[in-house]
Write a structure and sequence with these properties.
This protein has one domain. A hairpin with a 3-residue loop joins strand 3 and strand 4. It has a four-stranded antiparallel sheet with strand order 1-2-3-4. The chain contains two helices and four strands, in the order E-E-E-E-H-H. It is α+β, with helices and mostly antiparallel strands and about 70 residues long.
């Protein structure tokens, strides 16, 4: 999975998602070279949930089924 910056340049290539205790860990490379592990804690997941609106939740549910940009 790739995560892009606002200018559509590749920001992070996620190669693995795993659980470590109560945390979610995303492993991959930043800018295609620097290895990185990003951790999502339960507290941060709750903070993210507060940012979600019903419209945004629906978008996230339907996102995998959208065509998106073709490069």
């Amino acid at each position: 999975m790739k995560i892009y910056a606002a200018d559509k340049s590749e920001l992070m290539q996620v190669t693995k998602v795993e659980r470590q205790g109560d945390n979610l860990v995303l492993k991959g490379k930043v800018f295609g070279t620097m290895p990185m592990a990003a951790t999502l804690t339960p507290a941060e997941a709750r903070a993210f949930r507060k940012l979600l609106t019903p419209k945004l939740m629906w978008f996230l549910v339907t996102l995998p089924f959208r065509k998106g940009d073709t490069k």
